[in-house]
Amino acid sequence: MARKLKGIAAAPGIAIAPVVHFHPTLEHIPTYGVGPDAIEGEQRRFQAAAQEVAQSLLAIQRELAGAIDARESRIYDAQLAILHDQTFRRDVEAEVRQHGVNLEVALQRVVARYEAVFEAMENPAMRERAADLRDIGRQLVGALLATERGKYTANGQDYLFVADEFLPSDAGMLDRRHLRGIVTAHGGKYSHGAILARSLGIPAVVGIEPIMLDSNTGAVAIVDGDAGIVILDPTPDQVADYERARREQRAIDSRLAEVRFQPSVTRDGTEVRLQANVEGVRDLDSLETEAIAGIGLFRTEFAFMERRQFPTEDEQVAMYRRAMEGAKGKAVTFRTLDVGGDKPLGYFRMPEERNPVLGWRGIRLGLDWPDILYTQVRAILRASALGHARILLPMVTTRSEIVRCREVLDQLQADLRANAVPHDRSIELGVMVEVPALVPVLPDLMPLIDFLSVGTNDLVQYLLAVDRDNQRVAKMYDPLHPGVLRVLEQIAAAAARAEKPVSVCGEIAGDHWFTPLLVGMGYRELSMAPVFLPRVKVMLRSLTLAECVDLAQRALAMPSTAAVRKLVQDEIQARWLRQLGAGEERRS
Ligand code: PEP
Ligand code: MG
């Protein structure tokens, strides 16, 4: 029976394909019935998975021999013993046979039963066995799901990525030619998984009801990335409806795309430089550089997160050079490593933090570990000899951080000069405006910097005290809050007074409902996921500057988010729908 699940619209478009599960846990696993004639098949799956897990445990044990002491090595013996335990195997098989459930569910139930028994024991050594058992259960389910996954991903079939979250390391590992849609249980519209999906141009729904994670591998689902809906096991009528909607959407998209090489100006000729956000060099392959004014934000951390270890300076130079070649002479704004918060770096041990978003992240980490910052800035400088590169610092909070980064830059430039290494001697240094306290002091800071870039994704979360990554409060994350709009206007005014460029590179820059408001406040540079460029350009070209100023002034004077929203609906959305026709309604 078809089930309609609600989530958060994260990347536009419609996908219809079979579900494939990634990142299995024992909490959420595919669930389906097993008839008497399939029981033997489930037993064979158990044997194959147990053999695979045993081999991998033995391999780890061999690899670590000598590096760990005999006591620790016994952990692997204990896990192998569970794996070969005949009672454990019989109990799992009996669960399948007696209750007609699939092997994963049987494992989940038997592990939970055993765990409860071990945990109730007085002896701490026995209680530890509960953890071993859980680990074995997880490994077995992991092996089973990997085999199921292989049936789809190895055969060149289209599929939907379903998991708890979508990480840059996933993007690196997946066969993206056949990846049609992304569904995650975790995250909000502004979380990094959603940003990544948009940059890949793949429809995505995040924060979906967890029941999605229990769906059967191979079950067909519809992902509606505009409405934030997933339909599991759709009826033929629903599939037909969505296929029609997809065709209509494609027709509208190709009409919109016709504007892409036209000038980026308001109806009365004011230029607004539209730039692209990229998350890796591969994004540049599909980028139509003639249609943009440059790369407004290169999130370098995504490339770091896809790897198993820190890239060396030379590897980074190669990557930045490729980015600059890909941008065909247009400016590329390299943001220094912005890890921490919700962007962990697997190979860099970061302390557990209670509030990582308020913790050791962005430039704080770079200044505490100068090796990382020095290597990266040096690599960007070396690549800058090729064209127009800019350096952007993430999560800046204080004047002293900017002063120290300037010193690093000066020192590295002096060093490169002394060694006759070609580089841009007047490379621009910019600052992300993400921390609210920076806004009132911008007039004092402007002499120290060359440009500003407003990271509204973080700025909004800090202004509203709403976690951008938490689906439970996603409704409260509303950049139309008049407090947010007024802060955005202050930033534009501070940059204009100092006669320094300012861009918006957070997600609202790619939201065409915001275009008139941002232009009306004074922004002349917007950087966004390429998928949004056509819409923003069409919106821009449909309005005069005076109309934008009028809309922005009225929005800024509104007393509530609801009042701003009504203005946007009545004046911006209504006008857009009149222009583009009914096919657009689904998106709005
Ligand atoms: C932002 O915060 O708006 C931004 C562009 O940076 P990120 O989304 O990578 O945190
Ligand atoms: Mg940010």
Task: Explain this structure.
With about 600 residues, the chain is an alpha/beta fold. It has four domains: about 5-25 and about 150-235, Glucose Oxidase, domain 1, CATH 3.50.30.10; about 35-145, Orthogonal Bundle (Enzyme I, Chain A, domain 2); about 235-275 and about 450-588, TIM Barrel (Alpha-Beta Barrel); about 300-435, Phosphoenolpyruvate-binding domains (TIM Barrel, Alpha-Beta Barrel), CATH 3.20.20.60. It is about 50% helix and about 15% strand. It has 20 helices and 16 strands. The protein has helices at about 40-65, 70-85, 85-100, 105-120, 125-155, 170-175, 190-200, 235-255, 300-305, 315-325, 365-370, 370-385, 400-420, 440-445, 455-465, 480-500, 515-520, 535-540, 545-555, 560-580, and strands spanning about 5, 10, 15-20, 160-165, 180-185, 205, 220-225, 230, 275-280, 295-300, 330-335, 390-395, 430-435, 450-455, 500-505, 525-530. The protein has an eight-stranded mixed β-sheet. Helix 6 links the parallel strand 4 and strand 5. The model has no long low-confidence stretch (mean pLDDT about 90). Phosphoenolpyruvate binds near residues 195 and 458.
Defining key terms:
588 residues, alpha/beta, Glucose Oxidase, domain 1, TIM Barrel, 4 domains, eight-stranded mixed sheet, 20 helices, binds phosphoenolpyruvate
Could you say which small molecules are bound to this protein? phosphoenolpyruvate, magnesium ion
Distance between the termini: 29 Å
Count of individual helical segments: 20
Class from helix and strand fractions: alpha/beta
Give the full name of the CATH homologous superfamily of the largest domain: Phosphoenolpyruvate-binding domains
- Count structural domains: 4
**Helix proportion of residues, in percent?**
40-55%
Number of strands: 16
Instruction: Assign the CATH topology of the largest domain.
Output: TIM Barrel
Uncertain runs with pLDDT below 50, 5 residues or more?
Answer: none
Largest sheet: 8 strands, mixed
Please state the overall shape, judged from the principal axes of the Cα atoms. globular
Identify the CATH class of the largest domain: Alpha Beta
- Rg, Cα atoms, Å: 26 Å
